Amino acid sequence: MRELALILAGGRGSRLDILSENRAKPSIPFAGKFRIIDFCLSNCINSGIYDVGILTQYLPESLNKHIGIGTPWDLDRKFGGVTLLQPKMGIEENQDGWYHGTAHAIYQNLEYIRERNPKYIVVLSGDHVYKMNYRKMIKQHEETGADLTIAAQRVPMNEADRFGILDVDSKLKVINFVEKPKNPPTNLASMGIYVFTANVLIEILEKYCNKEFSDFGHNIIPMMIKNNSVFAHEFEGYWQDVGTFDSYMETTLELTKYYKDLKLDMYDPEWRIYTRSEDLPAVKFGDGKIARNLICNGCIIGGEVTDSVLSPGVKVEKNAIVRNSIIFNDTVIKQGAVIENCIIDKNVIIGENTKLGTGNDYSANKEVPDVLSSGITVVAKGAHVPANITVGRNVRIFSNVREKDYDSKVIESGSTINRK
Predict the structure, then answer these.
(1) Tell me, what's the pLDDT at 197?
(2) Above 80 in pLDDT, residue 93?
(3) Which residues on adjacent β-strands are paired with residue 190?
(4) What pLDDT digit, counting tens, does each position of 326-365 carry?
(5) What dihedral angle (degrees, nearest 10) is formed by the CA atoms of 211, 214, 218, 224?
(6) C-alpha separations of 83 from 5, 24, 53 in Å
(7) Cα-atom radius of gyration of the chain, to the nearest Å?
(8) What does pTM read for this prediction?
(9) What is the assigned CATH class of domain 3-255?
(10) Per-residue confidence at 211, pLDDT binned at 50, 70, 90?
């Protein structure tokens, strides 16, 4: 095996708040039938990389079940294939067993890496949405003789302080790297995608990595820029971090546009996005109005659905309305309900004649104003929203909430409903 891909998929995704309450960020549904990690896995297969390790940590059950033995991605192989790598005890100076950073996660799996004996290690983040041919990046890495190549993309200068920023010379050799600087020197942002020469990475991790010196961005990369050959690979295609409610909502609803206008083309037969699909019957439409949507298998729609994304098995009953919203698997919107500007997780029941996410009050959520302030209302997995109530904007409804947990028929904007 010349290349080994290691996907960092253990992140909590705290800015996605109650959507990641019961799952890791890479396993959050996206674009109806997919999960976020499907893009990274599909990129590997489309790039001809069939030896993949997935490093999990935070609430991995959903992710493990989704990936299984890797059949949808052609990774159920005798040689190579996919391996799920959980934290483990027994590593010297790491008796608690946890991964303490991105580099530390790789360090804990050096034995697995040595067994694979790759020439190059491709380190990937499992929580971004993009299509990328890693083979082009590996070719550049070989041609430059680099020890490390970092995928990078130009971002708006006013957003550069959110990223790790690279400073490069005319040949794209990296001369400086700063993690989320207040005054960015450039707008060339690291994408968190790395190609390492394997023996160099192994030597560095063995020599330096520990609980404190544990992160690629803060520790390993700055040191390698001083001591090794580090280059940037400038990527000009579509790439999106969907780690906030606003970016997740915007990126998902963009997919409801006419397919020739899409920034993220998921209909390209030359670069398919693979996933574990559910065996459900065809979509069934009633007499309602349907326009500009993504609607997945098993959905039954008797009401109005516009500018929205419906995952498999969603039911929208007669006279119900769904606008500008994302609905996850097997949720039921009952008769007369009106849903606007919402993200609704799996197995939720919205009662009859309830209005959810409506009104002109955009007050930020009182508990997490930095997370929820643009008008999106979020309902977590398995919650029940009673009939005949009105729920405002920027409201959080936690998982498995029941009717007894609501104290009023009017839930004001910025509120949070939790289990009593």
Answers:
(1) 98
(2) no
(3) 152
(4) 999 999 999 999 999 999 999 999 999 999 999 999 999 9
(5) 130
(6) 10, 17, 5
(7) 23
(8) 0.94
(9) alpha beta
(10) confident
Residues 6+ apart with CB under 8 A from 221: 148, 150, 164, 177, 190, 230
Fold adopted by 282-420: UDP N-Acetylglucosamine Acyltransferase; domain 1 (2.160.10)
Whether 238 and 128 have beta carbons less than 8 Å apart is answered as: no
Domain boundaries, the chain: 3-255, 282-420
**Distance (Å, rounded) from C-alpha 336 to C-alpha 58?**
38
The length of the chain in residues reads: 420
Provide the phi-psi class of 351: left if phi over 0, else alpha when psi is between -120 and 50, else beta. Answer: beta
Q: Are 363 and 63 in contact (CB under 8 A)?
A: no
The tokens of 195 are what?
């190609």
* Spatial distance between the Cα atoms of 102 and 217, rounded to a whole number of angstroms: 8
Q: Which amino acid is at 18?
A: I
CA 122, chain centre distance (Å): 18
Q: Are residues 316 and 298 in contact, defined by beta-carbon separation less than 8 angstroms?
A: no
- Between CA 373 and CA 361 the distance in angstroms is 11
pLDDT in tens, 102-147: 999 999 999 999 999 999 999 999 999 999 999 999 999 999 999 9
Integer angstrom CA distances of residue 258 from 93, 255, 353: 54, 8, 31
Contact between 410 and 390 (Cβ < 8 Å): yes
- Residue 111, helix vs strand vs coil: helix
Instruction: Tell me which amino acid residue 255 is.
Output: L
Specify the DSSP element, H or E, that contains 85. Answer: strand 81-85
Give the mean model confidence (pLDDT) for residues 145-164. Answer: 93
pLDDT value at residue 332: 98
Hey, which residues does 164 pair with through a beta bridge? 179
